[in-house]
Amino acid sequence: MNPYETAVARYFEAWNAGDADARAKAVAAAWVEDGTYTDPLAQVRGHDALAAVIGGAQEQFAGFEFRHTGSVDGHHDIARFSWELVSVSDGSAPVAGFDVITLAEDGRIRSVLGFLDRVPPTV
């Protein structure tokens, strides 16, 4: 795996970690301490805030997991990739998007800029 693929794999480990302890460890492995995450619904900095955003998404979408789609495209310290939020029970994917990450020298994520391409309709 190249450094971009490794970083993206760690990213999905964090988003799919099953409990708070595993999530905290996965976030620390994926992001630098003052790492950031920004998408249309959240803007946070630091491991605790990152873990809280991920935990909130897991609560909102219980029974779903984040899956990488396509390939990772990277150059310099930047990479982009697509993803879907997939139901474990029926395979539906109501949410999809793509993210752009910036890597630190140690290969961990410094920043994430997330974009939502598909979201469920609001009632």
Structure write-up:
- It contains 3 helices and 6 strands; from the N terminus they run H-H-E-E-H-E-E-E-E.
- The chain has one domain (3-118): Nuclear Transport Factor 2, Chain: A, CATH 3.10.450.
- The longest helix is centred in the middle third of the chain and has 14 residues, at 47-60.
- It has a 6-stranded mixed β-sheet.
- The mean pLDDT is 96.
- It is globular, with a radius of gyration of 14 Å.
- 31% of the residues lie in helices and 44% in strands.
For this structure, the CATH topology is: Nuclear Transport Factor 2, Chain: A
Kindly provide the name of the CATH class: Alpha Beta
Order of helices and strands: HHEEHEEEE
The CATH architecture can be given as: Roll
Look at the structure and give the mean pLDDT: 96
Gross morphology is globular
* Number of distinct helices: 3
Radius of gyration: 14 Å
Number of β-strand runs: 6
Count of discrete domains: 1
SS-based structural class? alpha+beta
β-sheet strand percentage:
35-45%
Characterize the biggest β-sheet.
6 strands, mixed
Amino- and carboxy-terminal Cα gap = 42 Å
Sequence of strands across the biggest β-sheet? 2-1-6-5-4-3
Helix content: 25-40%
Q: Ranges with pLDDT <50 over ≥5 residues?
A: none
Organism: Streptomyces cinnamoneus (Streptoverticillium cinnamoneum)
Domain SnoaL-like: 8-111
InterPro entries: NTF2-like_dom_sf (IPR032710), SnoaL-like (IPR037401)
Protein name: Polyketide cyclase
